[in-house]
Design brief:
The protein has 205 residues and is mostly loops. 0% of the residues lie in helices and 11% in strands. An 8-stranded parallel beta sheet has the order 1-2-3-4-5-6-7-8, with no helix packed on it. The relative contact order is 0.11.
Length: 205
């Protein structure tokens, strides 16, 4: 596995680069020449200056991890339509991100983790997210404007961890009762008639 932690010339990446790790990535968009569609497995651009993610939507057939945490200038949600094998999507502390792309998120059939901790502009999730049957972990803590989870969350039969602390949600749909493998515990400020899922565990990767 190749690992690039760069701070200089963007044009000298190995041709078989599989792991692109560049903290503080300074361009406002990822140019196509950075993206090796054959080998690239992980993109880790924490603390980037990205405003939008892709220069053009390009198929990354082996990409499993996309980590754009702490990218405070990111205002356009990524297009996921060309990422068929993505499993881990980490957008923690993307404070300017207003939404998740509703046209492509439902295509991430293998997605198992979505971390949106501290995405303070986010108000809801696209309905197609609740159709992802392999989905296991959803982190929404600190999403202070997020008010409502869809009743269709009960269809996510593999969901094991739901973290919702520090946000505007006051109740969880009763459909979560169908998710037998979730651990339930009460939380102050939520409706008594509602069960709340809170593991206390954070996903920081």
């Amino acid at each position: 596995m190749y690992n690039s932690l760069g701070s200089g010339n963007c044009d000298r990446f190995p041709k078989k680069l599989s792991w692109l790790c560049w903290r503080g990535f300074f361009p406002q968009v990822i140019r196509n020449e950075f993206l090796n569609e054959t080998y690239l497995v992980s993109i880790d651009l924490r603390y980037s200056n990205l405003v939008r993610v892709w220069e053009d939507s390009r198929r990354l057939g082996n990409l499993e991890i996309l980590n754009l945490s702490h990218s405070h200038y990111l205002t356009q949600p990524p297009d996921f339509s060309q990422l068929p094998y993505l499993r881990y999507l980490i957008l923690k502390d993307c404070v300017s991100l207003p939404e998740i792309d509703k046209y492509s998120i439902g295509l991430l059939y293998r997605l198992t983790l979505l971390n949106l901790k501290g995405c303070t502009m986010l108000k809801d999730l696209p309905e197609d997210i609740y159709k992802l049957i392999l989905f296991k972990t959803l982190v929404l803590s600190g999403c202070s404007r997020f008010e409502k989870l869809s009743k269709n969350i009960g269809n996510m039969s593999f969901l094991r961890t739901l973290i919702i602390s520090g946000k505007a949600i006051r109740e969880v749909p009763s459909s979560v009762d169908k998710l037998w493998d979730l651990d339930f515990s009460s939380r102050q400020g939520l409706s008594r008639s509602t069960k709340t899922i809170f593991t206390g565990r954070d996903i920081t990767t």
